[in-house]
Amino acid sequence: MQFADINGIVVNYDIQRAENGGPVVVFVNSLGTDSRIWHHVVPKLAGDCTILTYDKRGHGLSDLGSPPYAIADHVADLAGLLDHLGLTKVIVVGLSVGGLIGQGLYATRPDLVKALVFSNTAHKIGTAEMWAGRIAAVEKGGISSILDAIMERWFTPAFRSPDNAAYQGYCNMLVRQPVSGYAGTCAAIRDADFTEEAKRIAVPVLCIAGSEDGSTPPAVVKSLADLVPGARYEVIDAVAHIPCVEAPAAYAALIRDFLEAVE
């Protein structure tokens, strides 16, 4: 756990550097989560890769900044962190809003990007009306007021078993995020549309979907893959919106296979 002042906010990050000079993989987490969602995937790739995880603004241990945000704010934070660490030509693995951040990074700083993994995301996610409703709900009743509905999209019924302590842990992760950071990032997603930018991506891309994803179903992820020239599209069975938690071995295997192809 380390901290850096990036664009006037403190960003919490962790970097594990590979001794063999392997690829640099940057994980960007989803709305309402923090970098701990990657903790079962990172060990499966560590040693062969330099791995960077971090908490985007308004989440985890990073500062709030000034919500509401634009995706450009999240993109600038990631670019600033990479510059701070002297990292270029990275492979960005972006989950949900993390995928939008990855698209924005490539659109504005292609010098930083070697390849992209778009996980459970799209070129545009949801509608303005949907996000306005989500923002109003959490501002009125807190994140706990939407907990059950969100968890039904995030995880399969099997994972949401009352006997699964990990499920309760991820519920805690969601409701303990700052309301203003959550709502501020909802606004960023609401206003983001990378439809045209996706068509101009000229680095290797892997798109990953979860077969049971209620937030960005496979057809939505496929719509992004169809826009990106030469993109590879894969579906992980029996997982929902956060496959890095429900199926970390399958998730890491797809990423490792992709990294080998990129190399």
From TrEMBL:
SUPFAM superfamilies: alpha/beta-Hydrolases (SSF53474). GO terms for molecular function: 3-oxoadipate enol-lactonase activity. Residues 23-127 form the AB hydrolase-1 domain. Pfam families: Abhydrolase_1 (PF00561). InterPro entries: AB_hydrolase_1, AB_hydrolase_fold, AB_hydrolase_sf, PcaD/CatD. It comes from the Bacteria. Transmembrane segments: none annotated. GO terms for biological process: beta-ketoadipate pathway. PANTHER family: MONOACYLGLYCEROL LIPASE (PTHR43798). NCBIfam families: protocat_pcaD. This is 3-oxoadipate enol-lactonase.
